[in-house]
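Continuing the series of single-chain predictions for the mutant panel. This is the parent chain; the variants come on the following pages.
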Amino acid sequence: MTDLRTRFAPSPTGFLHLGSARTALYNWAHARRHGGCFVLRIEDTDLERSTRESEETVLDGLRWLGLDWDEGPHRQTERRERHGEAIDGLLGADRAYRCTCSREELEVRKEEDIAAGGAGIYDGRCRDLNLGPDCGAHTVRLRVPDEGLLGWDDAVFGPSGQDARQIGDAIIQRGDGTPLYNLAVVVDDIDMAISHVIRGADHHPNTPLQIAIYRALEAPLPTFAHLPLIVGESGKKLSKRRDNVSIQDFRADGHLPEALVNWLVRLGWSHGDDEIFSLTEIGELFSLENVGRSPARAEPPKLAWLGQHYIKALPGDELFARVRPYLESVKGAAVEDEESLRALLELLRERSRTLVEMAELAHWKLREDLEYDEKAVKKHLRPAALPILQALEEAMGGLDEWTLAGLEKAFDAVAAQLGDLKLGKLAQPVRVAITGGPNSPGIFETLEILGRERTLVRIGKAIEIVEARVESAD
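Parent structure:
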């Protein structure tokens, strides 16, 4: 174990966002690679929006992805007293001061400064008034240096920083006595000995002020690493209205966590030309040096490709266990662990990119109330299909054993009987009759899995459909 310590600090105000999940993964991987400690901290200072329900949603998402933490979850609200102590210490050292300027006054002066060509930062009105605790309603401001660079060498973006004069004396405690985010996060990172702050690039602008707070608290700076923005397939910033951004939604859509983790780690990081990474391999190979600066494009086709790869690799028992809830959703009832259903899942591996897709492809096996594809019915259950279906119904009904060999023999006999028809001419009407659509695994495997009784019932139903079309044509 080294002294390297990373942290993931989500706000529990909703679902686990795609970008947040990647941040958690990178922090986890960096800690695992170096034998360090991965800390989980819940930043719940937004009391109006933070809920324990949202917190559990975030934790559940992390567990599903396989990201285990070594410490926590610590909650920022439970450290309010410690934050207050830090602010009192800054006041006592004259590195912070009380400010009685009202919000309205600040807004007027800000607009006047901007109109005059200034940056609109605080003008330091209360900086040297030495106001005491009895000054009335007030905030607390950090005494930011008058000049100098508040800079750092970012592990991703390289030399970064901002001139202190462009920041001004920022508020670190609200009028109600609660600390602001930038103060709380720095105090927590110091107390938890966080050595590497790995977070999204949207936090890059916060870092100069946080550096000023570190210096005021006389604490060493951690290594900062800001991760590139994730954009959608179009190149635009991810949007809840346009893109899938919730880890819970990816799970509900049937994506395997292995595939999602593999996809996430490649949104900004690379290891040569390799594409496939298990979570264990990510923990062994990840390095901040190989994180790029350009926005990472979240491309669904790549996730689909990975999904198919991992579905094909799952052992049979595990595949059945994972897909079972989705099968039951399609069926609308509990699914029995039957040999023929397992055989179908094996056939569907090559066709499935998600567990939902696999379950939907198995619908004809799961449900008695078959839903027909109208286009497939119109194309394949035509009057010309009637003698084919009738002949196959009789031939299959007379089979001694319902096996692949027996079914193939029955089809060969009917093909010869009807003038040496090709298999496709026979298979498509039958396929639509027994599955409701034009696509399925091989016709003989599909028939064997469905079974004699259900096959013959469905062939009979299809014959009725064709006969009705013949009558209507007459």
